[in-house]
Design brief:
Number of helices: 13
Number of strands: 10
CATH architecture of the largest domain: Alpha-Beta Complex
Strand content: 15-25%
Strand order of the largest sheet: 3-2-1-4-8-6-9
Oligomer: single chain
Largest sheet: 7 strands, mixed
Radius of gyration: 20 Å
CATH superfamily of the largest domain: Spore Coat Polysaccharide Biosynthesis Protein SpsA, Chain A
Order of helices and strands: EHEHEHEEHEEHHEHHEEHHHHH
CATH topology of the largest domain: Spore Coat Polysaccharide Biosynthesis Protein SpsA, Chain A
């Protein structure tokens, strides 16, 4: 890797600390680089103001767009704006947890796509009532390097993804994905179809901030609606779709739908409360998806 563009889409998120951490490591890396934060039509003026100092950092820019165009469009825009050979896609709410984060990517033995992974941070005692934290911690064993590399194209995540710029321009994000979820899953399927190799390494960014339970449930519902809309395109690359397609007895599907319609309010109350259950969360997700039309 001879040069690097770090691309950070943002929406109502203060990401100056993240940019400062990346900027410090890139300065030490001694390669041509840039960091571009693309604000996708944020509505919080205080957040926009807090990100303005990014423009004062060398090789950094904060681009504010007036319209919210969606997760796929903003990432494609950033890729088109970038000037260097490799693109490092990072979500704005991630945290740098390693002093060698940039150097690890520079040392990676891959010339196409590299996924560094995510690690979940936080005090378990303080976050024992946070549904997002509980869910991400429970999923961690499925996101080790060895597990990700077993099915490399099914485990890419744009929270921390390195990709050659010409590949990103050749296989851009599907801009029909305007709402939350699954645009990176479809990218993985596209890269698989075109035989583009993906390397998974142990170079995580930290997930250290967690939304409220109600916000996470709403985000989950939005993601399930996205999954339902693009279920044909995503088939074979979603665990939930694979699970549902494996239920061949229509009576079972009818019972799950009946259960959801009967108990969805009680389940949602549990999930948005102070003692959410992961078992209830899984059941709620399945029932919500099966009741979509």
């Amino acid at each position: 890797m001879q040069s690097l563009s770090v691309l950070i889409p943002a929406y109502n998120c203060s990401c100056l600390p993240l940019v400062e951490q990346l900027h410090r490591q890139l300065e030490q890396a001694a390669i041509p680089y840039e960091i571009i934060v693309g604000d996708d039509g944020s509505t919080n003026t205080a957040t926009i103001q807090s990100n303005q100092p990014i423009n004062a950092l060398s090789h950094c820019q904060y681009i504010v767009r007036t319209e919210n165009t969606g997760r796929a469009v903003i990432r494609n825009f950033l890729a088109q704006t970038a000037q260097y050979e490799f693109l490092l896609l990072i979500d704005s709410d991630m945290s740098v947890v390693s002093e060698s984060f940039i150097q690890n990517y520079l040392a990676a033995d891959c010339q196409t796509v590299v996924d560094g992974g995510i690690t979940v941070c936080g005090d378990p005692d303080d976050l024992k009532g946070n549904l997002r934290y509980l869910y991400e911690k429970a999923e961690e064993p499925l996101h080790t390097v060895s597990e990700r590399q077993r099915s490399p194209h099914q485990h890419i995540h744009t929270a921390n993804l390195l990709i050659r710029r010409d590949l990103m321009l050749q296989y851009p994000f599907d801009e029909r994905f305007r709402h939350y979820g699954y645009e990176d899953v479809l990218l993985g399927k596209t890269l698989h179809q075109h035989h583009v190799p993906i390397l998974h390494i142990d170079n995580p960014l930290g997930m250290c901030t967690f939304e409220t339970n109600a916000a996470f449930v709403a985000k989950t519902e939005e993601g399930l609606r996205t999954l339902y809309t693009f279920r044909n395109e995503l088939r074979g690359f979603s665990r939930l779709l694979t699970f549902v397609s494996g239920i061949h007895i229509s009576l079972i599907l009818s019972l799950i739908r009946f259960w959801h319609r009967l108990f969805k309010k009680a389940e949602r109350q549990n999930l948005c409360g102070s003692r959410p259950s992961l078992w209830v969360f899984k059941l709620y997700r399945l029932g919500y998806f099966l009741c979509l039309k």
